[in-house]
Amino acid sequence: MADVKNILLVGVGGQGTILVGKILSTGLMDAGYDVKMSEVHGMAQRGGSVSNQVRYGQKVHSPLMGRGEADILISFETMEALRWLEYLNPKGVAVINDYQIPSAPILMGKREYPQGVLEIIKSKVKTTVIKAGEIAESLGNAKSMNIVLFGALVKGMNLTNIDWEAAIRKNVKESTADVNIKAFKAGMEALAE
Amino acid sequence: MKKLLTGNEAVAQGAYEAGLIYAAAYPGTPSTEILENIAEYKKDIIAEWAPNEKVALESVIGASIAGARALAAMKMVGVNVAADPLFSFAYSGVNGGMILVSADDPGLHSSQNEQDNRHYAKFAKIAMVEPSDSQEAKDMVKAAFEISEKYGTPVLFRMTTRVCHSKSLVEIGERKEIDKKPYVKNVQKFDLVPAVSRKLRMELEVRLQELTDFSNETDLNYFEWNEKKVGIIASGVAYQYAQEVFGNTASYLKLGFTYPLPIKKIKQFAAEVETLYVIEELEPYIEEQLNAAGIACVGKAKIPKMGELSPEVIAKALLGKEKTLIEYDGSSVAHRPPVLCAGCPHRGFFYELGKKKNIMISGDIGCYGLGNAPPLNAKDTCICMGGAPSIGHGAQKVFNKADEKMRVVATVGDSTFFHTGMNSLVNIVYNRSNTITCILDNRITGMTGHQDHPGTGFTLQGMPTKALEIADVVKALGIDHIKTVNPLKLAEVQEALDWALALDEPSVIITRWPCVLKKQSVRDKSEFGEYLGTCKVDADACIGCKKCINTGCPALQFNDETKKVKINPVQCVGCEVCLQVCPVTAITRVGE
User: Fold this and answer.
1) H helix or E strand, kind and range, residue A20
2) Which ipTM score applies to this complex?
3) Does the beta-carbon distance from A40 to B165 stay under 8 Å?
4) Which of B21, B49, B174, B349 is most buried by a 10 A CB count?
């Protein structure tokens, strides 16, 4: 299935990876692709590590990708990028949010937040680091951090010919649509830099 | 029109289109969203949460007997609870078509075991279908109702986590109203006394023979001929994985109708291909039946029977192929386990309970299972839903007989109490053990994402209903010693635990406070008020003793350099549990 593209979104429960997966997959569907998306519910919602896989192409069979297969890894949290790095194709692209959410062992002082995550990843694959939290905040809505990352993803996968503004409007509250579209554009620019 | 749906959404859509009239379930991952989505069709379908899976299935059986198309949904362990009516209703057979959805969880994403419920179809002697994606999930619901009514069999609709929770494209259709079948009293079919069952037992074998013939003929089991060097038999999501790995380099016998198996068709397929692989997730359910029929195949000798399959696992097992991976040292990555939320009402209770010595904590299924993790460490056992009080009772009896100074504290949630915890509590009263039962009433079914239950005052379809008061129920079950406490008030919790430990009779402590994530009802708001403000650490006063950190609240972080604690104001809801444990009153409440 060489024509199938693999996108891996990872982060922490509550960061809005699922919404991005939803906008992404409905947009791809409307553009005529076959799409499969896989996410795991349940325990992961309570602040656990979450992943969301989107696969698209002419015909997609498996909802799951394997390790070494993601064309792009979008990590909503810094440490999570390292946890999921083995899923990235060595020729793929990593887009990492410079945003740390310490996990329970770190909060309790039992473990340290890993040092040099970005340097490790940069030394292995083509990497873009984005301060999506700061960008979102500067646009007036810290919660649209996920959409900033979505913009970077669209650029990174060269999917800019799809009408994403419409897809965003379809999936977010009307009151936040404008700021989310700004966030989306800012994300696209962030990757271009 | 096409929509991107999860398998669960597709089942709901298919059931709606197929003229479903009645559905019931008890929430359980990965099945929960099936009923939540069916419930949206308020005008056409009655959809209900039942207190447990047995009650759900029994209600659905009643609806079928009355003549309606009916569907029950549950996670795989729920089918264990519902097995009693299932096995006997297989003898009766249906009036209106009946489907039991079993959502299995290979890989144990959120379950206590990894059982393969395909065995239930063979065990109970009922038909089984297995969709491999969302379109099939929708189509097979329709097919299953037709099979059910044509042959009289209940149908086991077997899904797995990846089918339930993966999204794929589905063609949406219209609802086709199916006339309810007339109810005709028929004791020779529905009154299972031994004389009737003996006769139905023979009819069941005849039905299975008819279903075997159907299995060999139906398009649900189909060939896909490509190269014949490798032939693959697969069902469910394993078929999609096989396609991913082998594409058109292999031929396929795709099985959608998997009990009874189409042995004739399988023999025909086996005769055409050089090497026959059976690719199935979990147990060698298909493989064993092929072996019994004398059909040579390769299955679990190469493919793992534990955990989830994936294209990666299959490619490695059968072709020895592995992708090149990025090599790196990921050992610095810390675990990120799920935790009780900031402001979770269970935290205060577990903080106090975890301090008690010489107790065994008999836990149960739900968010409060997360009380097991450090630093709370407040759980010894958890076996099955509703089992905490009865498992606790048995242990307590033995401790008492052996004269060990151990006390058992059972913890059970509100929804879990109504599930089967009530029966367990009756046993404690009846057989007189001094087991302490703590009912952690957070006013909702929490872990599965906020479903109503008999104590919340609302039905699945949003109708106001009588809210059972747990304290009244407990009293009626024969418990004489009952205390209701606010779990956010540590002194109250401590006092209640000491009170219960001093009693030599069964007691119940109810901790009553809503889940911090719950959308509060009007009644909740008037009883509990709303969270206001947050807690803040005065850095000058903080002595870095980590007492507050030991509540395990994710809003609190200990800084190794400054040796002080900081509270994340975005996460903090101002529950004040940390404030109460601080020995130097460095934590205060701000922003009310």
Assistant:
1) helix A17-30
2) 0.95
3) yes
4) B349
